[in-house]
Write a structure and sequence with these properties.
Length: about 160
C-alpha cells in the first residue's frame, strides 16, 4: 500500500513538473533518455570491458564515484573496502536506497562483443585467471545475480541517479 502511495505521489509530482514546463511526461522522459543514453552506454561498455574480481574493484569504484559526483551526489568511498556510497539530497522526506555489485567473476568471456573483457588477473592466492562481468543467469550462487548482471546493476543505478 505504501509503495502505491509513493508511486502515485511520484507520478502526480512528475506530471505537475512537466505541466509547468509545458512538456508532456512521455516527451520529458524521452528527452532525458536521449540526453543521458550515450554516456550511460559508454559507462556500461567500460565497466564490462574492465572487470575486477571481488575485493579488488578499485578502478570500478573510482569510476562509479566519479559518475555519482557528476550527478550531484555526496560520495563516500572506501566503505567496507572498495564500496561507494552516494547520497543525493532532495529535501526532507524518505530516502531511497539503490544497491549494486561492482565485482566480476573469474571466468573467460566468450561473447564476441566488441567491448568483451580480455582481462586476466590474479586472485588472492596469486593464481592467474580470466575476469568477466557477471553476464549470464546463474553465474554465481547469489540469488540477485541470477536476476541481474553486475554491469546492469552498476549502469542502471548510475542511470537511475
Amino acid at each position: 500500500m505504501k509503495s502505491k502511495y509513493l508511486l502515485t505521489v511520484f507520478v502526480v509530482g512528475w506530471c505537475s513538473i512537466t505541466a509547468l514546463a509545458q512538456v508532456r511526461p512521455d516527451e520529458a522522459v524521452a528527452q532525458i533518455v536521449d540526453r543521458e543514453y550515450p554516456s550511460l552506454l559508454e559507462l556500461y561498455q567500460h565497466i564490462h570491458a574492465h572487470p575486477e574480481l571481488s575485493m579488488h574493484e578499485k578502478a570500478t569504484a573510482v569510476r562509479i564515484a566519479e559518475e555519482l559526483r557528476k550527478a550531484g551526489f555526496d560520495v563516500t568511498t572506501g566503505v567496507g573496502g572498495n564500496g561507494v556510497v552516494g547520497v543525493l539530497r532532495n529535501g526532507p522526506g524518505p530516502t531511497v536506497l539503490l544497491r549494486t555489485e561492482l565485482d566480476a567473476l573469474p571466468v573467460k568471456e566468450e561473447t564476441g562483443l566488441p567491448y568483451a573483457s580480455t582481462v586476466t588477473t590474479k586472485n588472492d592466492d596469486g593464481v592467474a585467471d580470466h575476469c568477466q562481468p557477471r553476464t549470464k543467469a546463474g553465474d554465481s550462487g547469489c540469488g540477485h545475480d541470477r536476476i541481474h548482471s553486475r554491469r546492469d546493476h552498476a549502469q542502471c543505478h548510475s542511470g537511475g541517479s
